[in-house]
Amino acid sequence: MTVTVLVVDDQAMVRAGFAAVLDAHDDLRVVGQAADGAEAVRLARALRPDVVVMDVRMPGMNGIEATQALQTPPRSSDYVPRVLMLTTFDIDDYVFAALRAGASGFLLKDAVPDEVVAAVRVIAAGDALLAPSVTRRLIEEVARQAPPPRVDEHLLASLTAREREVLVLIARGRSNQEIAAALFIAEQTVKTHVGKILAKLGLRDRVHAVVFAYDVGLVRPGG
Q: Which residues does the UniProt record annotate as the domain HTH luxR-type (predicted)?
């Protein structure tokens, strides 16, 4: 199946470069390019790409605002694309806000072509992605700048004790394999728990599970 992509960046050469890298693969097809957030929202709703590769910092409507707009479609549409955010720095003031806005992953702009292609495929498959350098340190650093967490006991009460344990480990940046080792359970069991956590909390992917854990105070920076 071909994955369709919209590339969004205010620099024409950057847009063209990403488009060329992606179009070189048979399973990926760039259906459009946009120079700012407003154009990205308009083109995305018209072209309905599977993935929007979105720059964070742009004049006018920035990538965060555009991502948020795409996550809240008009009543006449149910189209919500997956968004891969591009950032220049691994510690970016906008990262946590973009995750809250609905981005499914991050990639540094200096990523090599193979990383860009792999990232789009991962996002299109429904998984979340953080570039290797956008680590737990990044999440905690930006979380320090966020408002005090609000504890939502109603949502947390829907989780079993084991699911809470798994969610905490997800928020601490552990992989399924590492969680399985820490809790002495099978990796497939971890995958089942993760699926149930996302379903119960109405979350799209693993990245948003991390955001939720910080938002409700289940995990705190440095804790």
A: 152-217
Angle among Cα 15, 21, 26 to the nearest 5 degrees reads 125
Minimal CA–CA distance to 176: which of 163, 190, 186?
190
Alpha-carbon gap, residue 195 to 189, rounded angstroms: 10
* Dihedral angle over CA of 68, 3, 135, 142, nearest 10: -10
Kindly list the domain boundaries of the chain, sorted by start residue.
3-134, 149-215
pLDDT tens-digit profile of 145-174?
555 556 567 778 899 999 999 999 988 878
CA dihedral angle for residue 197, residue 172, residue 83, residue 17, rounded to 10 degrees: -150
149-215 and 3-134 share a CATH fold: no
Q: Is the overall model pTM greater than 0.90, yes or no?
A: no
Q: What is the DSSP letter of 57?
A: -
Is the domain spanning 3-134 CATH 3.40.50.2300? The answer is yes
**Lookup result for tokens 């891969």:** 84
30-75 pLDDT per residue, tens: 999 999 999 999 999 999 999 999 998 898 999 999 999 998 888 7
- The maximal CA–CA distance of the chain, rounded, in angstroms, is 50
d(CA 101, CA 89): 19
